[in-house]
UniProtKB/TrEMBL annotation:
Pfam families: adh_short. Belongs to the short-chain dehydrogenases/reductases (SDR) family. It comes from the Bacteria. This is Sulfoacetaldehyde reductase. GO terms for cellular component: membrane. It comes from Rhodoplanes serenus.
């Protein structure tokens, strides 16, 4: 092989392989969604920071007879992460038929007391990366007549003193997904947003939260949340809220005066914060 040939960029297949890309796939809802896509015969791309966990999940999925997932270890909160992921997919001859934006995290505490850089990193991951990936993959989604599933939260329906930045990021996810769904729908793309209540996963451990009071009766498993979102996406339903009681939350939020809603949420967060209070 000549030196010139050795430095040529890898060729991209004329007919890229359609895949389902799942971010935050190393555990929790993301891992469960990856299992659902794989069980239905889709080639899955697993994306998260923890390569060992992704490889273990890929082994499990392949062991069940599904196509072996592609593993991409990537810090999605890093600058230009969306562009790097897009480039990697293209270089491997993969076209995005389904995109699941699941990666995200939250922090419990008074915003002015929490680390500012961590909160800005939360915005980068929960909002900026989700938006960048959606825009970067939109052409593929249209060509493939595929689907977009963004993982939001019940938090997106209300303000959240005690987790102010997190709730605000999920309000963005809800609004953005509903709007872009209206834009992409006529072009053949199914768009859904999954808004679960409390789900016992590594997310809660990182955020430092646990379900309390009324929230505890709205808790669903990661598998149930994933199934709700997956079914909504495949059926073309724009919103998935797992759990009968949880589905009442948006209605209650609309009916309660804003000041009363803020007081109710603040009281709930005070119980969570304990000595870290100040609301």
């Amino acid at each position: 092989m000549s030196d010139a040939a050795a430095h040529e960029p890898p060729s991209v297949p004329a007919h890229p392989e359609p895949v389902a890309v799942v971010t935050g796939a190393s555990s929790g809802i993301g891992a469960e969604l990856a299992r659902l896509f794989a069980a239905d015969g889709h080639r899955v791309v697993l994306v998260a920071r923890r390569e060992a966990e992704l490889t273990t999940l890929a082994d499990e999925i392949a062991g069940r007879g599904a196509p072996r997932p592609v593993v991409i270890a990537l810090d999605l909160a890093a600058p230009e992460a969306a562009a790097r992921l897009r480039e990697t997919l293209t270089a491997q001859g993969l076209a995005v038929r389904y995109l699941v934006n699941n990666a995200g995290f939250g922090l419990l505490g008074v915003a002015t007391s929490l680390d500012a850089d961590q909160q800005l990193a939360m915005i980068d991951l929960n909002v900026r990366t989700l938006t960048a990936l959606t825009l970067a993959c939109a052409d593929d989604l249209v060509r493939q007549r595929g689907g977009l599933l963004n993982v939001g939260s019940l938090a997106g329906f209300m303000p959240g003193p005690g987790m102010a930045v997190y709730y605000a990021t999920k309000a963005f996810v809800l609004s953005f997904t509903e709007a872009i769904g209206r834009e992409l729908g006529p072009r053949g793309v199914r768009v859904s947003v999954l808004c679960p209540g409390p789900v016992p996963t590594g997310f809660q451990a990182r955020a430092g939260v646990g379900a309390t009071g009324f929230q505890s009766v709205m808790t669903v498993t990661a598998a149930a949340a994933a199934r709700s979102g997956y079914d909504a996406l495949m059926a073309g339903r724009p919103l998935a809220i797992p759990g009968r009681l949880a589905r009442l939350v948006p209605l209650v939020v609309r009916l309660l005066p804003r000041r009363a809603m803020l007081a109710l949420i603040a009281a709930t967060q005070i119980r969570r914060l304990g000595d870290r209070g100040g609301l």
